[in-house]
Specification:
Number of strands: 10
Radius of gyration: 19 Å
Helix content: 40-55%
Mean pLDDT: 94
Largest sheet: 8 strands, parallel
CATH architecture: Alpha-Beta Barrel
CATH topology: TIM Barrel
Strand order of the largest sheet: 8-7-4-3-2-1-10-9
CATH class: Alpha Beta
Low-confidence stretches: none
CATH superfamily: Luciferase-like domain
Number of helices: 11
Shape: globular
Strand content: 15-25%
Oligomer: single chain
Order of helices and strands: EHEHEHEHHEEEHEHEHHHEH
């Protein structure tokens, strides 16, 4: 397996010079990618704008986003992502997600939580057609297009699209529609079990998901997690079952992050996005620490 380590910006909000410095440091230190989350009601830079800035700053570093797909205009998004892929020289990485299921986020997106999955099921195949076909006719439950055309096309052929999520419906969707899987807030045991479901769903659809296309997004803290942070993690899944599970979901003590990544590698996962849940006081020092901890695992 080709193990690759990317870094997520988390809730960091950066000025231009600050982001330029992070990009330069990531490239200098040898990281694979920088990632932005797509959440409207939580602090953090807009991924499309930030990736456009980054595309003109660095020449090797890949640029990734975990982007909410439901609620977006498919033609506009297809054009934006294709343009970004060309401007970055084919370095764009895309993982689509359903988004946070909070009242504030759903209201900001103009989404009904119950309809997000159906929208993703319609939009992802439509995006692939817009990236590959010269003229697209589509009459679906949400969108109707007649002779839609997107230019430019992505530089990557194909432009791989991964999906997040770990619910049974999400695992089915990964197997049937996606090129890879990038879950978050899961243990190595849960990830390994989810991979089997993905592979079974893919086989049932006459597809194969590349064995190299299984990764994990891991949030971490340095030191003891604040109680409020633990409550937020517990609110997004069942109550934490003891300290061992807490370390799997929110590593913090020295050596925990590296040990957790190694266990995911042993479970067959090879692409990682590590995210400081709390913005670091110095990105340079944070990246040097991450490089010392994790880059030895890159193969």
């Amino acid at each position: 397996m080709k193990v690759r380590i990317g870094v997520g910006t988390g809730t960091a909000v950066m000025e231009g010079d600050g982001l330029a410095g992070v990009l330069d440091d990531l490239e200098e230190l040898g990281f694979d990618s920088l990632w932005w989350s797509d959440v409207l009601t939580v602090a953090g830079d807009d991924p499309l704008v930030a990736m456009a800035f980054a595309a003109g700053r660095v020449r090797r570093l890949k640029l990734g986003t975990t982007m909410v797909l439901p609620g977006r205009n498919p033609v506009r998004l297809a054009k934006q992502l294709a343009t970004l892929d060309r401007l970055s020289g084919g370095r764009l990485l895309v993982t689509f997600v359903l988004g946070l299921r909070t009242p504030a986020e759903l209201a900001a997106l103009g989404l009904d939580a119950a309809r997000r999955g159906a929208q993703l099921d319609e939009l992802l195949p439509l995006l692939r057609r817009l990236w590959t076909e010269d003229s697209v006719d589509h009459d679906g439950p949400r969108w109707s297009l007649a002779g839609a055309r997107v230019e430019p096309k992505p530089l990557q052929v194909p432009l791989d699209v991964w999906l997040g999520g770990s619910a049974p419906s999400a695992l089915r969707r990964v197997g049937e529609l996606a090129d890879g899987w990038l879950p978050a807030l899961c243990t190595p045991q849960e990830a390994a079990a989810g991979r089997l479901v993905v592979e079974e769903a893919a086989a049932g659809a006459g597809r194969v998901v590349d064995p190299e296309h299984f990764g994990v997004s891991i949030g971490y803290v340095r030191g003891e997690p604040p109680p409020e942070l633990l409550r937020r993690v517990a609110a997004r899944r069942a109550p934490l079952a003891g300290d061992a599970e807490r370390r799997d979901l929110l590593p913090g003590a020295p050596g925990e992050l590296r040990a957790l990544v190694e266990r995911f590698v042993d479970a067959g996962f090879s692409k990682f996005v590590v995210r400081p849940v709390l913005p670091p006081s110095s990105w340079r020092h944070e990246l040097e620490w991450l490089a010392e901890e994790l880059l030895v695992l890159q193969t």
